[in-house]
């Protein structure tokens, strides 16, 4: 706006004759007056200064009467006020027409003045109105631009904020799902443990009783067999039946059968117990946990998911228990180990290591599996991100791990291995009372 | 104040006739031109109009010379009343020394009066004039028409403001000079306090008013109009 010429015009500003007339307006009239008989014509302003003149150059008309000449003058008016005059000089012989010429030229000049004044006033006010309207339009435009910018910003922010909130909601939802998953796993474990423990108890106890009972029966059988060994025909018959029934093998195998059955029952019992303790269904707060034992327990629970021929290399260096929420630790271990176990269908080499580093606890789980492409590494912690086919996983495993570690003030990193496969490193601060 | 030149001893004042469209502002000026002596006033200049509606302004100048020799010129303007010419109104209003607000007495014009007065308040503020100190008179015009707001109502509406209100019929010619005279008197009061017209220039209020408002002899048209 400052570049534009600033016309500071006030309606009513005084106009002088020189403002209202130009030579082009005046001179033809003066020339015509001289042609009509005037010897000299002058137009003067208020201060008697000559603005335009024509004719004899023998000095001013008003400076004195020249012998043989007559003069006359008429006022020039602006807004009804005299602002100057027009003076004529003519030879005495032309005195008669002098007044007529003066009236004609004076009248013409006054008309020109009035119409010029009107034209100037309208032009000036028009210019002023245009400028003002333009300024107002600029101001309106500036306000609109500003308001548009605000709205645009708002819209853009809105998108960002919606994205933020969506991400937060997704995280919260993931947390909820994980929590529910954990809780249901825990409940399931507790239920299964309860349901299995009772029958398992009497299976186990009955097996022991059965073993004792059978030993007694065998003892009795052998007593009878020994007694009848001298009884010729009956003994031969008995031996034949003994062989037919393969009782020697059976008696020999019986112990193995019982031992294996009892071992099996005991393994079931320990699995159930592991499941129960691993789910930490009974402990909701922090507890002191031996990390190495917990890792082994997790590996045990995942035995059925372990591909055949898997080699597991353990390198445990945590010598004291760590303090953490057991259920959360189980989640971390299960999710990371399961990922590793699923990375390769055969020939899997799983390296699990734990240890302390300064005031941090660390856990490293490495596999020689298919690895995670570089471009996906930043996304694997996103809730519901999965590369597995539908039904293969809901994409929460690493999110859960990430969220838990965040809660602990720790971190989880995915490191590619030059030799192929993936190493996941987890670290979190040891509690003040750890170690 | 358009101009004050102490050396040239010249003072140019501006009075503005404001109001809604068709309320009779130009008619007021025409009547002043008609009813006041040629001696002491200039010619009425009506800038281009369209269908009798003012689009720029009208101007009627008055002249007065104080005993001290101070030449006082009072330019009386009308503004265009139509809402769309607001920029022109603002331009004319700039540096005004007094305002006559010409209202339309007809019932149906009440809203226009209110809007126009509110526009006057806004524009005065915009051009830096204080409506509380600016000389201001109100004229309820068209008293000759039927279906008009009663004087009592006008009195009740304006009494609390302290603004002088006149009833007039510009068309018939009454109340116009009274309105102008009061405006001139109020303008003098304000000028005198700033420029010491009486003390320095020997010009008192009556002389100022009498010099600017010189009714032609025996017109008699001023009898019916008057202050409410």
UniProtKB/TrEMBL annotation, chain A:
Spans through the membrane: none
SMART domains cross-referenced by the UniProt entry: HATPase_c, HisKA
InterPro entries with a match to the protein in the record: HATPase_C_sf, HATPase_dom, His_kinase_dom, HisK_dim/P_dom, HisK_dim/P_sf, Sig_transdc_His_kin-like_C
GO MF, any single term: phosphorelay sensor kinase activity
CDD domains: HATPase, HisKA
Matching PANTHER family: HISTIDINE KINASE, SENSOR HISTIDINE KINASE
Organism: Geothermobacter hydrogeniphilus
Lineage: Bacteria, Pseudomonadati, Thermodesulfobacteriota, Desulfuromonadia, Desulfuromonadales
Catalytic activity entry: ATP + protein L-histidine = ADP + protein N-phospho-L-histidine
Keyword vocabulary terms for this entry: Coiled coil, Kinase, Phosphoprotein, Transferase
Domain Histidine kinase per the UniProt entry, residue ranges: 191-432
Pfam families associated with the record: HATPase_c
EC number in record: 2.7.13.3
Residues in coiled coil: 137-168
Name of this protein: histidine kinase
TrEMBL record, chain B:
InterPro entries per UniProt: Gliding_Motility_GTPase (IPR052705), P-loop_NTPase (IPR027417), Small_GTPase_ARF/SAR (IPR006689)
Pfam families, per database record: Arf (PF00025)
Highest taxon listed in the record's lineage: Bacteria
Protease keyword on record: no
Keywords: GTP-binding, Nucleotide-binding
GO molecular function terms noted in the UniProt entry: GTP binding; GTPase activity
Keyword Nucleotide-binding: yes
PANTHER family assigned: ATP/GTP-BINDING PROTEIN-RELATED, GLIDING MOTILITY PROTEIN MGLA
Protein name per its UniProtKB record: GTPase
Organism ancestry: Bacteria, Pseudomonadati, Thermodesulfobacteriota, Desulfuromonadia, Desulfuromonadales
């Amino acid at each position: 706006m400052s570049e534009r010429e600033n016309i500071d015009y006030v309606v009513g500003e005084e106009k002088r004759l020189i403002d209202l007339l130009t030579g082009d307006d005046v001179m033809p009239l003066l020339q015509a007056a001289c042609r009509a008989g005037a010897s000299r014509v002058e137009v003067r302003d208020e201060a008697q200064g000559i603005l335009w003149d024509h004719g004899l150059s023998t000095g001013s008309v008003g400076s004195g009467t020249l012998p043989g000449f007559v003069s006359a003058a008429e006022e020039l008016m602006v807004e009804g006020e005299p602002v100057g005059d027009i003076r004529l000089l003519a030879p005495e012989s032309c005195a008669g027409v002098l007044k007529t010429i003066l009236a004609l030229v004076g009248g013409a000049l006054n008309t020109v003045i009035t119409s010029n004044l009107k034209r100037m006033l309208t032009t000036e006010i028009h210019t002023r109105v245009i400028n003002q309207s333009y300024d107002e339009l600029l101001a309106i435009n500036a306000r609109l631009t500003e308001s548009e910018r605000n709205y645009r910003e708002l819209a853009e922010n809105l998108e960002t904020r919606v994205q933020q909130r969506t991400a937060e909601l997704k995280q919260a939802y993931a947390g909820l799902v994980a929590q529910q998953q954990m809780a249901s796993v825990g409940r399931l474990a507790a239920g299964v443990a309860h349901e299995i423990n009772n029958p398992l108890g009497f299976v186990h106890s009955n097996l022991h009783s059965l073993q004792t009972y059978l030993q007694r029966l065998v003892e009795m059988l052998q007593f009878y067999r020994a007694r009848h060994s001298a009884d010729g025909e009956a003994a031969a018959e008995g031996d034949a039946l003994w062989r037919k029934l393969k009782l020697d093998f059976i008696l020999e195998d019986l112990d193995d059968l019982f031992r294996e059955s009892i071992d099996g029952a005991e393994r079931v019992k320990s699995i159930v117990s592991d499941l129960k303790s691993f789910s930490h269904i009974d402990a909701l707060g922090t507890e002191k946990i031996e990390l190495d034992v917990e890792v082994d327990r997790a590996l045990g629970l995942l035995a059925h998911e372990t591909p055949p021929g898997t080699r597991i290399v353990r390198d445990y260096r945590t010598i004291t228990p760590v303090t953490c929420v057991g259920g959360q630790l189980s989640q971390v271990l299960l999710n990371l180990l399961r990922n590793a176990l699923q990375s390769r269908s055969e020939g899997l080499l799983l390296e699990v290591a734990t240890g302390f580093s300064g005031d941090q606890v660390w856990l490293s789980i490495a596999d020689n599996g298919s690895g995670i492409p570089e471009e996906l590494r930043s996304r694997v912690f996103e809730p519901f991100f999965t590369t597995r086919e539908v039904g293969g996983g809901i994409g929460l495993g690493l999110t859960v791990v990430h969220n838990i570690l965040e809660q602990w003030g720790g971190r989880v990193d995915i490191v590619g291995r030059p030799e192929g496969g993936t190493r996941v490193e987890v670290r979190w601060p040891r509690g003040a009372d750890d170690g | 104040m358009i101009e004050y030149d102490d050396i040239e001893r010249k003072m140019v004042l501006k009075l503005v006739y404001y109001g809604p469209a068709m309320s009779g502002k130009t008619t007021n000026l025409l009547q002043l031109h008609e009813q006041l002596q040629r001696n002491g006033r200039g010619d009425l200049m009506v800038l281009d109009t369209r269908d009798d509606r003012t689009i720029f302004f009208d101007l009627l100048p008055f002249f007065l010379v104080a005993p001290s020799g101070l030449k006082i010129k009072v330019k009386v303007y009308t503004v265009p009343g139509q809402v769309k010419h607001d920029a022109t109104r603002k331009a004319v209003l700039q540096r005004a020394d007094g305002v006559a607000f010409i209202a339309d007495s007809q019932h149906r014009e009440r809203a226009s009066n209110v809007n126009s007065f509110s526009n006057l308040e806004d524009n005065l503020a915009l051009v830096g004039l204080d409506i509380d100190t600016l000389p201001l008179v109100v004229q309820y015009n068209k008293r000759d028409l039927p279906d008009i707001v009663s004087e009592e109502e006008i009195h009740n509406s304006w009494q609390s403001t302290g603004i002088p209100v006149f009833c007039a019929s510009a068309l018939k010619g009454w109340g116009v000079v009274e309105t102008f005279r009061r405006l001139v008197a109020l303008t003098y009061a304000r000028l005198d306090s700033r420029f010491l017209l009486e003390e320095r220039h020997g010009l008192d209020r009556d002389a100022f008013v009498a010099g600017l408002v010189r009714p032609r002899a025996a017109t008699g048209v001023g009898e019916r109009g008057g202050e409410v």
